[in-house]
Amino acid sequence: MSFQNNVSIVMTVKNEEENISMILDSFLKQTYKFHEIVINDNGSDDRTINVIKEYQKIDARIKLVESKSQSIGRGRNTAIKHSSGDILAIMDAGIYPQKDWLEKVVSPLLKNSDLDIVWGNIVFDTKSRIIPCTSLSMGLVFLTKYSEANRKGKNVPSTAFRRKVWENMNGFPEIDVPIEDLLLISKVSKKGLKVMKVHDAIAYYFKYPRTYKEVFNKWMVSSFSAFIIKKSERGFFGQLYRFSFSFLFCTSLIFIDIRLVVVAILFLIGFFMNKYKKNSELGKKIIQHPNLLITSINLFFILNLARFIGIVKALKFKLSGKTIHFEL
Fold first, then answer.
1. For the segment 121-146, what is each residue's pLDDT rounded down to a tens digit?
2. Cα distances (Å, whole numbers) of residue 15 to 24, 47, 88, 203, 219
3. Which CATH architecture has domain 3-205?
4. What is the residue-wise DSSP string for 208-225?
5. CB neighbours of 144 closer than 8 A, spacing ≥ 6?
């Protein structure tokens, strides 16, 4: 049973001991009076569950569901099944909403009954608003994300939609690779739902990989997933052309001829100049601080090597005859 116009904040977490208190505090400070917070813990083996239970003593609106080894999409669906609100607000544990985020992302749905989904605005924080930024986090945003001035991006976290929309779409895609968000965005587009973007419904993304190894693993899985499902917000084959093949060309020929070394360097400069045009504010920081520039150059090669290996793994997966089943 759902309650009309009541709002349920839903999220799925795993091993978020470091962040969960901060995120729950941000929910409890929201200017909009929500109905409940439903959290699906997906098998944490740290103190995440204990922290949530302590907060339940403070506010009875916090509900905890404990599941194990679920995909992100299945975890979101589990949380929603245990919620009762007519409007569902989606958030992740690595994203910190401003205190008026919920009010701004929900208000359009309350004012316009024909509206199905409201996309909030995720800002990839490089200004240490939530936690101190590192050279790695700033380099990653520069190379892979959009600038703070770009408000066209769509992200499933920081989104609000009606329960009937979730039901009509048969929930989030329950797929075993982390690409359910792009699949959902694609499904929304295909169904022709009525959506709008609220630019000032801001939530800050702050949970970046902390080491080069974590970066490599994350982007390898992302590349594998995109190739298997052939879905990407920016276009998988465009990425394949711009990054992987150019990277292989430069690195495989760099030791043969000095002219090819020059070509490789010019390509790298051109790539960074293109990123600078899209995010000049962060680009200036990268150029002015040698450690940031070196980190960004290292990341360029690590990201593209990860993408290439992810593609190779995906090809081996396909050639083995294995398949990943999902409904779109």
1. 999 999 999 999 999 999 999 999 98
2. 15, 7, 23, 21, 20
3. Alpha-Beta Complex (3.90)
4. ---SHHHHHHHHHHHHHH
5. 303
